[in-house]
Automatic annotation (TrEMBL):
Gene3D superfamilies: alpha/beta hydrolase. Keywords: Hydrolase. It comes from Micromonospora zingiberis. SUPFAM superfamilies: alpha/beta-Hydrolases. It holds the Pfam family BD-FAE. The keyword Hydrolase applies. InterPro entries: AB_hydrolase_fold, BD-FAE-like_dom, GDXG_lipolytic_enzyme. It comes from the Bacteria. The keyword Transmembrane helix does not apply. Residues 1-21 are annotated as: Disordered. GO terms for molecular function: hydrolase activity. This is Alpha/beta fold hydrolase.
């Protein structure tokens, strides 16, 4: 593992094959990667990046992850969306962008990558704040989602606000705390909307300093208690960024759980 786990965020990776737009805003786009090798069509993987919904983090920090997934034979779309600090970002644009992208990308990817995208709902692979957005899309647009692999997701927005994760990130996204804008938390907080219709696997490192593993434990327990098909995989000795690093010891666990979602798709 690299001495600095954050190194994956700036590690060079091959450029995507092409970029498509799902809306008119410059950030309503996605980078597409063609699956490496021959094989039958597979479900589209939509990678939803993290960065606590902030403008300074974009989809390109998931390039190593997306390239590795394409090398496993999957068609991949790296979804971009408007973020806090940008016009139209935050509430509700960040959330509606992701839902619109998830709905449109299977069609766009199938047209751009003929013969490589199976005609089934995509599997969402979301990390950190992107994990939150993937869970939100699965809850609010269930017809568009075939499965979710949530990597260290921010799965409890009220608790993330209380903990002041990333110095006010949730307040910046939603415009305040649960007492200020309760209706926005009811719409956007995954913990309030359980269970999910889609099969979901949550993976979280026990050494995570950005998003506490206790958040995933509480979220998965609530989903299971409500009858949801959801499983939690805890990885000891894994921190926040190892989950999106193909060179980390956590990577085989990530790919194994993705494979199980694909095979059950």
């Amino acid at each position: 593992m690299p001495s600095d786990p954050r190194a994956v965020l700036t590690r060079p990776a091959p450029e995507p094959d092409l970029t498509v737009a799902y809306g008119e805003d410059p950030d309503q786009i996605a980078d597409l990667r063609r699956p490496v090798g021959a094989g039958p069509p597979r479900p589209l993987l939509i990678v939803v990046h993290g960065g606590f919904w902030r403008a300074e983090y974009d989809r390109r920090h998931t390039d190593p992850l997306a390239d590795a997934l394409a090398r496993l034979g999957y068609p991949v779309a790296q979804l971009e969306y408007r973020r806090t600090g940008q016009p139209g970002g935050g509430w509700p644009g960040t959330l509606t962008d992701v839902r619109c992208g998830v709905s449109a990308l299977p069609r766009l990817a199938a047209a751009a990558l003929p013969g490589r995208v199976a005609p089934v709902p995509p599997i969402l692979v979301g990390h950190s704040a992107g994990g939150h957005l993937a869970l939100h899309a699965a809850a609010r647009s269930p017809q568009d989602v075939g499965g979710v692999l949530a990597l260290a997701p921010v799965a409890d927005l009220a608790e993330a606000y209380r903990l002041d994760l990333d110095s006010g990130a949730v307040a910046a996204l939603l415009g305040g705390g649960p007492a200020d804008v309760p209706e926005r938390y009811e719409e956007a907080d995954p913990l309030i909307v359980v269970p999910l219709p889609a099969r979901t696997v949550v993976i979280h490192g026990t050494l995570d300093q950005q998003v506490p593993v206790e958040m995933s434990r509480a979220y998965v327990a609530a989903a299971q208690a409500s009858g949801g098909d959801m499983h939690l995989v805890e990885l000891p000795e894994c921190e926040h960024f190892g989950l999106i690093d193909p060179d980390s010891p956590a990577w085989p666990q990530v790919t194994a759980r993705l494979r199980s979602l694909h095979e059950d798709h």
